[in-house]
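In the current project phase, the collection of sequences with tokenised folds has grown. A representative record is quoted in full directly below:
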Amino acid sequence: MAALRTPDSRFENLPDYPFAPHYHTLRSGLRMHYVDEGPRAGAGVSGQDKMSPALAQSAAPAVLLLHGEPSWSYLYRKMIPAFTGAGLRAVAPDLVGFGKSDKPPRLGDYSYQGHVDWLSEWMEALDLRQLTLFCQDWGSLLGLRLAAEHGERFDRIVVGNGFLPTADRGVAPAFKVWRAFARWSPWFPIGRIVNSGCANKLSPAEIAAYDAPFPSSAYKAGARAFPRLVPTEPDNPAVPANRAAWQKLGQWNKPFLTLFGAGDPILGRADKPLQQHVPGAKDQPHARLRGGHFVQEDQGTEIARRMVEWMKG
């Protein structure tokens, strides 16, 4: 598959993002980037395109951090040190089309199932197991599918401002506005979009870091595509698989926690349906924190602290 690759120079001197790059080449030829920090098997493989089978089979337990739209692993820069400081491994991939990962240039190159398949292939190549998932926004649309379909690899789930849509519920007016903007607006300023979803406003350098993966509009097809891929209508091709995953989550008895930013106009109240549906959510220390849609920006350190304590318990 043809793809654009953001020059490395765009990622130089980003504030609070000192993490070494790791890459995996998918069967399609696309290259996925991921952060891999903390104790893990195979130290010293940074920058290699493929992990050897011996290393993959001995991979350590990890916290899997999945970003959404239109962010990238930079979103987790406040949380990763908190996990590694507690002796945990933190793995944060850039979805295809985002961050340091390759970016197919056509809207038609992207589908919901395609993203699930890319992530599944990457996860299996690293043989990630005993995972604690934290997912937000599209990270939840993908992460909850992964956990439902590969439950043997996941020990716990934490959702922050995310959900698994099955076209059985209404759509917030704010989402309809966002979807129309992503489709039709000639102006699509990634950094400013992220900033608008935060309660604590970003610095100019942080806004620039969110813009870094996208040197021009040609690189933004993945970000443009995501809103229209959300399955809000019953005839959407992703609905059957999502409904099957939702059914499996209704039988999920492993620990399940929600930590939401209360100021999100689209997903700020989506925690209650998750808590009511997932058995593993019962009696967990759920919380709504002061924060917007990108709760990792507003409360990243606090979320990581709560997760570490929760995992210990």
